[in-house]
Amino acid sequence: MATWGYDDNNGPDKWGDSFPIGKDGVRQSPVEITTSKVEAKPEFTELKFKYVPDNTKDIENTGSSWKVNINGTGSSLSGGPLKDNHELWQYHAHWGSDNSKGSEHRVDGKMYAAELHLVHWNTKYSSPEEAADKEDGLAVLGMFIEVGAKHEEFQKIVDALDKIKYKGQQTVLASAVDPTKFLPKAKDFWTYEGSLTTPPLYESVTWIVFREPIQFSEEQINGMRNIAFCCKDEKHIAMVNNFRPPVALGSRVVQGNK
């Protein structure tokens, strides 16, 4: 059995047994965002993005999500709550078995059908691996996904999912994907200090969650539901509900750019 996953035997409520920070930590993620308690920080500067589409070529099934790996440099994030420049490392998503659930963060109790995460590492460190467990090592952009219009850029990923149906499979995307096109039109955001939402659950993430959701079509979200948690020679288990429920915010405060 895998050391962690999303079923009854190795799901999020069991992760703390193997990864104690999951139950003993003080800045775990995701969290419930209560909009009435958000602290406005108008002094935050605008977020600055520079993504290089040609760096997004490889996609794999990790056994917990699909993941696009970034090859090369130059895809950067700065501004907002961030003091340093951050480089894009990888991106992936979390989704539910139906459209009523799937996002990891929640807003005033509301869940979305899915959530996209763009994971960046702080370039004051020498590598993403070195940055991964540092308290200021990572910055993740979170986009809520609701069912709506077909997303043309995301379709490039959907078209590759049949080739990575099973855990461990990897392929090259037929055409480069521009992460800029996943950003919502309005760039208002919430931010807080948190963690990775999957083991090893390092408390190293500055979360930046956009208020405005983006849209994928029902067919596109179903495309994600059609890949599997398992390897090809194992009993088929559809990859759905690969999200961690919210954890206590504790003494932390969620801030917003306005």
Automatic annotation (TrEMBL):
Q: Does the keyword Metal-binding apply?
A: yes
Statement: the UniProt record of this protein carries the keyword Metal-binding? yes
Chain positions covered by the region annotation Disordered: 1-26
Q: Where are the transmembrane segments?
A: none
Query: GO terms for molecular function, please?
Result: carbonate dehydratase activity; zinc ion binding
**SMART domains tied to this protein:** Carb_anhydrase (SM01057)
User: Which stretches are annotated as coiled coil?
Assistant: none
Q: Its catalytic activity?
A: hydrogencarbonate + H(+) = CO2 + H2O
* Source superkingdom: Eukaryota
Alphabetically sorted, this entry's keywords are: Lyase, Metal-binding, Zinc
> What GO cellular component is one of the record's annotations?
cytoplasm
Q: Which cofactor does it need?
A: Zn(2+)
Functional note: Reversible hydration of carbon dioxide.
Which family does the similarity line name? Belongs to the alpha-carbonic anhydrase family.
This chain belongs to the protein called Carbonic anhydrase
| Biological source species | Caligus clemensi (Sea louse)
Q: What is the lineage of its organism?
A: Eukaryota, Metazoa, Ecdysozoa, Arthropoda, Crustacea
